[in-house]
Write a structure and sequence with these properties.
mainly alpha
């Protein structure tokens, strides 16, 4: 009696193995096309200027205003505490990138899935990460438009130019992104990011240097404004906490930045990444603390929501600083947009089986830029947006989610120093998440009552 089963089963096995190989090849082809995983030859200094560009953004310009709402003691304490906590949580993110031997968590949500489970991790991380990244890009649309408008006003002081609506300046700023958003990955925007990092240091230096030159203004006051109610003071305090949280937002793209650095068992990516992060955080401190403290010292509680607006002399220098802001937020917009592009393209190619082509990329990225432009034009409330987004989404992803994942993955001993530090960060982060959006939302509602859309 002949038994043919081995031959038949062997054929099935060969067919199955070929199918698996094809599937693996297809996955690799998609990975080599997606923005985050397509290029892994970045140097440590890429990490430095990508992190500076991601962090020292529009938020630094609002820090003197945040200090005005918080007061000297609370303001400096919150600023310093935020620097220390976020430096620690950023270290955790860098360490957890390759916490599983032989595997890299290239995206924030992949680490979340490892910590919380495949489904729950997606639901916890992706909505918050999208709120942060899309929120930042909307705020940067408004910032870019405001800075262009301010530049136009300063240059035209002597020539009495016709006043142009903020809407048009936001559209001018967006037009740049309709072009450079088609650069494929992080490494391809390295030049833009480097220019943006240099600009951020430049305009921060101009902001505090011009404040020193201007000196303490006449009748400067450092307490709460006499014409505001107790409720106003409390809600402004809450919103200012969100402003500070917004200033430390780089965690949302840190794993994606680290994914571009090559890694081997002998030379893991965390070493060059951490080197870049240390340089970046030193630069962050050099920008944030002088701008916040000197800006508030010079103007007191009358400081504008954007410090450069309070500074009008020398005209040429402040005009230049505003252009530096524009160049910087062009780079920052791209840093935060790249993970969003990666998410959109991953879903379309992997789930909906679209072909990985330049046409798909052209259409999706243009739609995204148009969307952020439209929302920015519709709701150009700069400081209120900072307070709301800063508390609502930045606090979880920056202040305490890394700590929760660290506790779940690394399991430090109960009541050990690591365990206590993580729980302190979690409690402070949750308080920030609850309090800050209340102030920001109230200010948005107050502004919206008097605001005429597209006026």
């Amino acid at each position: 009696m002949e038994i043919q089963a081995p031959k038949h089963s062997n054929n099935v096995y060969i067919h199955s193995s070929i199918s698996d190989e094809e599937k693996l090849a297809e996955e690799r082809a998609i990975d080599s096309w997606l923005p985050i995983t397509s290029n892994r030859n970045a140097k440590w200094w890429y990490s430095a200027f990508h992190n500076v560009t991601a962090m020292v953004g529009a938020g630094v310009l609002s820090l003197p205003y945040a200090l005005a709402q918080l007061g000297w003691g609370a303001g400096v304490t919150v600023l310093a505490l935020s620097w220390i906590i976020t430096f620690y949580t950023l270290w955790q993110m860098v360490e957890m990138h390759e916490i599983v031997p032989g595997k890299r968590f290239d995206r924030y949500h992949e680490l979340g899935q490892h910590a919380f489970g495949k489904k729950l991790g997606l639901w916890i991380i992706v909505p918050q990460q999208l709120i942060v990244e899309v929120g930042v890009d909307i705020v940067y649309m408004v910032t870019g438009g405001h800075s262009l408008k301010r530049f136009h006003e300063l240059v035209c002081q002597q020539h009495h130019c016709k006043d142009i609506k903020l809407t048009y300046f936001i559209m001018i700023f967006a037009s740049v992104h309709f072009v450079i958003s088609h650069l494929p990955d992080f490494n391809s925007i390295a030049g833009v990011s480097l220019a943006a990092a240099i600009m951020s240091i430049s305009y921060s230096t101009i902001a505090w240097g011009a404040s020193v030159k201007k000196g303490v203004q006449a009748e400067v006051k450092y307490g709460y404004k006499s014409d505001q109610t107790t409720a106003d003071a409390v809600f402004n305090f809450f919103s200012a906490l969100g402003d500070v949280a917004f200033a430390y937002a780089g965690h949302n793209v840190v794993l994606e930045i680290q994914a571009t650095i090559p890694s081997t068992p002998e030379k893991p990516s965390k070493k060059p990444m951490w080197k870049g992060v240390i340089v970046a955080y030193i630069i962050v401190a050099m920008c944030y603390f002088p701008v916040a403290i000197i800006g508030y010292w010079a103007f007191g509680n009358k400081v504008n929501g954007i410090i450069l607006v309070s500074l009008d002399k020398p005209t040429w220098l402040i005009a230049m600083a505003n252009i530096f802001v524009v160049i910087h937020v062009i780079g920052s917009y791209q840093i935060y947009a790249m993970p969003v592009f990666d998410m959109i393209e991953t879903v379309l190619v992997r789930k909906f089986k679209f072909k990985a082509t330049w046409i798909l990329r052209f259409v999706t990225r243009n739609i995204y830029v148009a969307f952020t432009m439209f929302v920015g034009i519709t709701f150009p409330f700069f400081n209120e947006l900072l307070g709301f987004f800063g508390g609502f989404a930045f606090a979880p992803t920056t202040y305490y989610l890394p700590c929760i994942m660290w506790l779940l993955i690394c399991k430090p001993k109960k009541y050990s120093l690591s365990w206590i530090i993580n729980w302190v960060c979690i409690i402070l982060g949750v308080l920030l998440m609850v309090i800050a959006p209340i102030g920001g939302l109230r200010l948005i509602i107050k502004r919206a009552k008097k605001y005429e859309f597209y006026s």
